[in-house]
Amino acid sequence: QLLLVESSNEAAEVIAAQLGREEFIKLMNEKALSLGLTGTTFTDASGLDDGNISTVGDLLRLVQYIHFNRSFILELTLNQDLPTAYVSGESGELENFNLFKDINNLLGGKVGETLAAGQTSVTLHKVNVNGTERTLAVIILGSLEREQDVKKLLEYTEARFTQ
User: Fewer C-beta neighbours within 10 Å, C or N terminus of the chain?
Assistant: First the structure.
């Protein structure tokens, strides 16, 4: 939950340390290749390093895999009320960074931000396309206004494909 909901870089490093950081990163890259993510390279466990790269096509392939094979991951990213083991102090609940204020059709996803990548997100949304409910992936890379960009793409889809 810390990794997916609050984007805890420390949680990513703790998880990687359990196996050995270099071995963990090697396994991440092997998994990416096994999923056909040929334009993706991991250089650290958290995604902070500028050497971590991917493509829109690879991110689409990844979110499709998660949607069809590991949907619980998407469900975790939607949780709003997440109590933690902390019983006092500032850390009583996790803050979900993946939720958008003005977008209600979110099925799950992950946001991120680094200096090299800008604001990013990979999200799935429920949309009505010509009377049929569909799942739409929205992938944003290098944004300065991630939430507005997602909203614009969803509005475009609604205007273009809804009758």
Answer: C
